[in-house]
Structures are given as structure tokens and as C-alpha cells.
């Protein structure tokens, strides 16, 4: 087994600590029941990997909505999975579709996507509110990479084909 060295400022008394790092490195194989080590892909995310992650998050949201809406009579809602378990589900979904990223990588990538999305959304909202008062500003989608960078916006967002 490869050794794992981490510098963490986490409390070892946290019950999720052990679960979180065990799940990040191992997978319970559905058929054989044996544990295997995963070799996660490193480096920049491809567009295909990013699209798989977005699909996984959409499926996770739907799965969680179904779980919440499955009230019968006076029964309580099912508790939502803890965050490490939730991201483990996303990792599993991605892994089955060829995106070999860890739950931590998925979570980090999602946070970065959301940060960039919110910047673009806010820019577009301000542009629309200004209306004709500021004709010098272009839509994010009309700018080239250099113009986006100059305005402090993400340079590599792609527009969805579904509008």
C-alpha cells in the first residue's frame, strides 16, 4: 500500500475523520465485496470530466429530492446523508462513467465551478440592470478570453447548449 502523508489541522476526535479518509482511498466492490485501492487521475479536468461531474450533481440533487419527498403518512423525512457520504456517491457516479476523480477532487471542482458561475451570473445581472446606460460593456458570452481576464471574470466558461 502506498503511504499517505498529510498535514492536517483536524481533530482526531471527529468521528467523520476516519470515515472520510478511509472512503477517499478505498471502495467496496459491489460484486466481490473486496476492498480495492483506486488510482485517481491527477491534473486539470477535461470538459468531458466536468460534464460528468455536473450530471452527477444533478442526479444527486434529484436523488435527494426524491428521498425528502418520500413521506408516507406521518413518517418523518429520511435524514440526508452526511457530506462525505454525499460526495462519495458523486465520486461513485463519476467513476462508473469514466471520470476517475476522488470525492475531494469532485467537491473542490464543484466549489470552483459554482464560484465562477456566480461571478458570470452577477456580471450578466449587472449588465442587464444597467441596460443602455453602459453600451461599452459586452455580454460575457461576447467577450474573448483577454476581455474576460481584464474584467476579472473566469476565462474558460462554456455556454450550455440548453437555453
TrEMBL record:
What are the residue boundaries of the Myb-like domain, all occurrences included?
A: 37-114
Q: Does the keyword Membrane apply?
A: no
Give the signal peptide as a residue range, or say none if absent.
1-18
* Keywords tagged on the record: Signal
Q: Origin, by domain of life? A: Eukaryota
The annotated regions of Basic and acidic residues compositional bias extend over 141-152
Biased region (Low complexity) positions are: 75-84
- Say yes or no: keyword Signal present: yes
Q: Which Gene3D superfamilies match?
A: Homeodomain-like
Segments carrying the region annotation (Disordered) are 57-84, 125-163
Q: Which InterPro entries match?
A: Myb_DNA-bind_4, SANT/Myb
Protein's name according to its UniProt entry:
Myb-like domain-containing protein
Organism, per UniProt? Answer: Opuntia streptacantha (Prickly pear cactus)
Amino acid at each position: 500500500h502506498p503511504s499517505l502523508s498529510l498535514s492536517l489541522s483536524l481533530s482526531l476526535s471527529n468521528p467523520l475523520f476516519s470515515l472520510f479518509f478511509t472512503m477517499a482511498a478505498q471502495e467496496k466492490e459491489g460484486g466481490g465485496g473486496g476492498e480495492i485501492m483506486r488510482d485517481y487521475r491527477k491534473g486539470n479536468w477535461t470538459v468531458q470530466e466536468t460534464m460528468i461531474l455536473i450530471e452527477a450533481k444533478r442526479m444527486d440533487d434529484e436523488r435527494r429530492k426524491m428521498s425528502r419527498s418520500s413521506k408516507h403518512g406521518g413518517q418523518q423525512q429520511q435524514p440526508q446523508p452526511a457530506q462525505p457520504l454525499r460526495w462519495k456517491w458523486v465520486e461513485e457516479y463519476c467513476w462508473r462513467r469514466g471520470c476517475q476523480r476522488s470525492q475531494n477532487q469532485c467537491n473542490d471542482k464543484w466549489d470552483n465551478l459554482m464560484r465562477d458561475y456566480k461571478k458570470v451570473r452577477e456580471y450578466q445581472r449587472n449588465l442587464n440592470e444597467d441596460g443602455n446606460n453602459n453600451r461599452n460593456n459586452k455580454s460575457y458570452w461576447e467577450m474573448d478570453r483577454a476581455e474576460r481576464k481584464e474584467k476579472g471574470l473566469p476565462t474558460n466558461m462554456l455556454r450550455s447548449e440548453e437555453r
